[in-house]
Prior knowledge:
Radius of gyration: 56 Å
Helix content: 55-70%
Strand content: 5-15%
Number of domains: 4
Strand order of the largest sheet: 4-1-7-8
Shape: rod-shaped
Distance between the termini: 195 Å
Number of strands: 8
Order of helices and strands: HHHHHHHHHHHHHHHHHHEEEHEEEEE
Number of helices: 19
Structural class: alpha+beta
Amino acid sequence: MSGDPYGPSHGFVVPPMPSSPPPAPPDGRRAAAVALLNLSGLGLGYALVRRWVLMAVCWAATAALLLVALPADADGVPGFALLVYLVFLALAAVHGAFAGLRTRLARSGRPPLALLLGVLLLAAPVGGALLYDDARQEAIEQQLLDRLDKADDLVAESGRRSFESAKSDYRTALDVYEDLVAHHSGSRAAGRVPDSMETYYATVGAAYGHKRYCEAIAPLKYLRTVPRTMPKEELGALTRWPEDRLATSLYECGSSSLSSGEADWVTHFGELLSTFPRSEQTTKVAPAVDSAVAGTEKNVRGSDPCAAVEELRSLNTRITDLSGSAGDAAGDLSKSADRADRSADSGEYACGVDQYKDGDFEAAQKTMDGFVADNKSDKNRARAKKISIAAEVAQTLPAAGKRLPTTASGGSISVTVKNDSPDPITVYYTGPVTGSFSLKACGSCKAYSFASSITIGFKPCSDSGKHYPQRTIGLPPGTTYFVHKPRGNSTATPASDTAKLRSGYIYTECAYTTQTLGSSY
């Protein structure tokens, strides 16, 4: 009988072949190995269990992270991207552990070796993170160095401009230096800040090095404020760098202003005396001021004595103001102020003479009157009185001012001056001799009408019934100029006369008043 010996009649059935290998027995070491290998970020755990697509996903995730992270910069990897990647690795490890628990390895029998390899490969992401952190720290260093270089460049560029226009840029650079040492003290950039600060001080205070002392004052005063911003330990000796330079600049600028007649020397010397009272420069202030007074005294004998007198008055005022807060120098400065005042008083004589010679007779009279009042014992006081009288005459008769009067007095020619006027008068005269005297008013006299004064035969001072106030003086031969000026009547016009006196004659001058044209003689 033919047929299948293993057919159904014999009770045996062959089962169909399985579509995949049966699951392996659970193995914790295998699961741990796959999980650890996936933590490397390369998906090697999936390679052991032949999950190629998932391995490719791991490679893609790691590549995406590298694209975001590289090249390393100071900001590092964005926090969100790093968080997503770490969550992905954790999920890959967990999923890999479940997959490796019952899945045989591609090379069976080696779970311990795979576990060891997974542990070793964990060094890859750890080492990468360390290398990345080093690269990031270098990027930060380069960023800080770039900030430092830009600040240094800003200082160099600012040094080519005036301090006032560059001051804000200097402040900006200083803020960078301060931030580097305060918040990045261990950086290479912070280590270079001391050198940058030396350049900073030299650049800001460059005007001092070029001996432009007035220009150097403002930047040096600014540099004295830098220690309020920068730690003093970072500045070292620079904290004292502006001190002596500023004191020198204040003195030199003040001295230059004093020599050139500018007024701001008081400000500079005052600041020097108050800010650096014990400095060497301070001891030079009083001698410099006294030297200026002495030099101005010499100018009194020069071509413009009035300007010298005015300058001495100004020096007296300014030195007095300065001495009020001069400390130890106050005594010497007060002496210089007194000297300037005395020299100005005595210099008024030379000023008045110069004004007289220039034909400014009104100013000359005023100056000489002031000199006479201020100098009771000066050797020139007597002549100053004569010059004042001559200046009074010359304001009415300019020819009288062609020569300076002398102190001579008296003469052989008799001249009688009578007052036929209801006003008291002062008689001024100048010529070979100069003088003045006063006559009382004529009580019974009246002003003449203009018509009567121009009629033929008009003779004032000829009424024998009147007692005319009069005075007789002796004058030398030559031309003498007379002016009769009513006292207490500013509206009256002075009368004048030019008399050519000759020996052997007796002269009479008559002062009278007309109703419309003022006084006459």
